[in-house]
Amino acid sequence: MNDSQPTRVVIVGAGFGGLAAARALADAPVQITIVDRQNHHLFQPLLYQVATAALNPSDIAQPIRHILAKQANCQPMLAEVTSIDTESKVVETTAGELPFDYLVLATGATHAYFGNDHWADHAPGLKSVEDALDIRRRILLAFEKAELATDADERTRLMTFVVVGAGPTGVEVAGAIREIATNTLRKDFRQIDTTTSRVQLIEAGPAVLAAFPEKLQQSASEQLESLGVEVRTNTMVTDITADGVTTSDGYVKAATVIWAAGVAASPLGADVTDETDRSGRAVVAPDLSVPGHPNVFAIGDVSAATDANGVDVPGVGAAAVQGGEHAAASIIADLANTARPSFVYNDKGSMATIGRSKAVADLGPRFRFGGFVAWVLWCAVHVWLLVDFRSKLRTISSWAWQYVTGSRSARLITGYTAEDTTA
Amino acid sequence: MNDSQPTRVVIVGAGFGGLAAARALADAPVQITIVDRQNHHLFQPLLYQVATAALNPSDIAQPIRHILAKQANCQPMLAEVTSIDTESKVVETTAGELPFDYLVLATGATHAYFGNDHWADHAPGLKSVEDALDIRRRILLAFEKAELATDADERTRLMTFVVVGAGPTGVEVAGAIREIATNTLRKDFRQIDTTTSRVQLIEAGPAVLAAFPEKLQQSASEQLESLGVEVRTNTMVTDITADGVTTSDGYVKAATVIWAAGVAASPLGADVTDETDRSGRAVVAPDLSVPGHPNVFAIGDVSAATDANGVDVPGVGAAAVQGGEHAAASIIADLANTARPSFVYNDKGSMATIGRSKAVADLGPRFRFGGFVAWVLWCAVHVWLLVDFRSKLRTISSWAWQYVTGSRSARLITGYTAEDTTA
Questions:
Q1: A206 CA to chain B: closest CA distance, Å?
Q2: What is the pLDDT confidence band of residue A407, given thresholds at 50, 70 and 90?
Q3: Which of B80, B87, B147, B172 is catalytic?
Q4: How many whole angstroms separate alpha carbon A279 and alpha carbon A265?
């Protein structure tokens, strides 16, 4: 470390993990540059609500500069990282080079098509605001086209929605589409009855919410079915076209397919280490550093970590936050010439919502429940986790309005051209 | 009229005029189809606030189906009208034909580049949600690029904004950009001082707000200058490139140019009549019908009308609303075999806002004033005019937040790729 200049920390990614690392270093004698290719931090657990027209993008996304405005030792940078050289200790970006003393890689993961990337056009995933607005447009346009359709089979196809992958995202999207169809849009159309729309949730494994205890998987399935979602487990998707979805258990004609399956870590994981798992995640040491480079950390969904107790760290927001805080604590320990702490993952539980008054919550062996209470808890926790008071206020008011009126506030079709409904 | 089926009314355009016509026919023995190429009604007076990151699109846009959900005799249709045949009484759309007994054309007007359409890429106008989001992205990215810039001249160019046209829209956008630069973004950047940004408002005529009384033009000029806007009247734009703007009074290097000048009526005006003025507006009779076709009305900005007292009807929202109501009243009179009423335009006055606590209001000879009181009135009227209670609530809360914190809530850059800041 060069004593004549502060220690340079580069953080790549301003999601849960990157932001947590930056904030935990607020009082440390370091100069931080946090790079993200977006200008905003995205609260991903609520992204499905933008996709289903319940929230606006700005309710769940805050400008990174605003979040970090008061942190004098941290400089945000809007650019894309193109490569990382851990030997020379330099990060290459579209806006110049960033030399570092410490690097925290927090670029996350996205969905994966299991080698069938051409499915992406017909079955978008849900990772960014643009994805969410694209899905919102597809859902709303499907109903608009159904309203104009003269052929009964085509009308049915337009009102059939398939969601692939029954993790929390898939479960939440599927439930929300049934909700928008049975509540919000019901009175809007004259030719079609939106309550007859079909939503299929297709899962290759034996159960929905694979990471949850069995009792809650059961509860979630029941709640989905009471909402009118057709749950198809033990079913693999083998092809997707503009017309519909081929599965191991038959073909379904559907105009709208949403992909919520598979994990692909950010490709930068492979830049910092050769040891990656089959999802591309960087395999890290128990202190979350990359083998051979104690000054390089990989945290959150881009990494595959096992904590000091041998517990596999899951790909959830809370784990990314803890990882970011641990990387910061390790840097601080180094600068103080003390031993780095151990990383012990503190499992705060999981929750998933199903429609507007149902959910499942797993907060430990004695705190597992489903239904309305779980849903209230889910709402409370998610509002609390929002990074910004104004967002909390806006989201609460949006939800309150939605709950009282059944009206989903953000039902705009934007970025649309008339060709999309040409007869 | 065929007694065995209801009278068919086709309304093209669900802006102020078209919606007013539809609603005024709610109890009439007609079957209405209202066609719009967007799914939402846009409250255009506040569009500039979406462009300057103060409001979200959904705060000022409501789904047409939602607005008309309770009107049983009115069917919304999402499609683009491609042509109108007034002889055969058929409207051609991208989703099929619409025969009509009565037609109300309410497709509005947009900005015009005086024959220099190639300027549009460098100087977008502000007509739709997509336009507003594009302008928002350009403004926010300009500051992001300035933060990364290494050349001082380029940095200055990136922080220079030109608005062309000093009508209400241009005045409002120019004031809002100075506001975002001097208040909201001030603490967000480390390398640049956003308060040094320059905003030039260029106007070919001798004064800003040409349609307002002279005293208020003066007030507006002063308020703009106190906000830091450089007002350049009697100045014509002769060229626009990606680098800057050439005027009759010199060249200005500017990375962001916004076009708020010129009027071009919707091309459908020329479909319903050969008599159009030089802005393409359909010249109508005093009862707002098209010469030779008493069953075809053109209202709002697509039309050039003179009322029963010889008063030229201005291109403002209130005039479109009154025109739509008059068209409806005329149809109702026809169906009741009574005489059509005369159309008398009731001038409710004009207002324009300049920044967050300034405005000018012209509400008649004894009610002309500028400054804070005008601004409060402007806010109150605009909230009142919003079509939907939820929008009123959200807009009030957005503005209250903005006023208290100086924070503009919708500061997202969306639809952006990293190439936009490549060094």
A1: 38
A2: low
A3: B172
A4: 6
Instruction: Residue window 88-147, chain B: list those with CB within 8 Å of chain A.
Output: 94-96, 129-130, 133, 140, 144, 147
Q: Where are the alpha helices (DSSP H) in B303-405?
A: 317-335, 372-385, 389-405
Q: What would the pLDDT profile of B26-56 be if each residue is shown by its tens digit?
A: 999 999 999 999 999 998 888 999 999 888 8
CA gap A140, A185 in Å, rounded:
9
Residue numbers in B near A147 (CB within 8 A): 77-78
pLDDT tens by residue, B272-318: 999 999 999 999 999 999 999 999 999 999 999 999 999 999 988 88
Q: Is A37 on the interface with B (CB under 8 A)?
A: yes
**B172 in active site:** yes
Q: Is B63–A412 a contact, with Cβ atoms under 8 angstroms apart?
A: yes
H or E segment and range at residue B132: helix B129-148
Residue range A304-327: mean pLDDT, rounded: 93
User: How wide is the angle at C-alpha B385 spanned by C-alphas B384 and B387, nearest 5°?
Assistant: 105
A422 touches chain B (CB under 8 A): yes
Residues B354 and B223 sit within 8 Å (Cβ to Cβ): yes
Task: Check if A278 contacts B (Cβ < 8 Å).
Answer: no
Longest dimension (CA), chain B: 75
Say how far apart CA B197 and CA A127 lie, in whole Å: 34
* ipTM summary value: 0.83
Our CA-based measurement puts residue B202 at a distance from the nearest CA of chain A, in whole angstroms, of 30
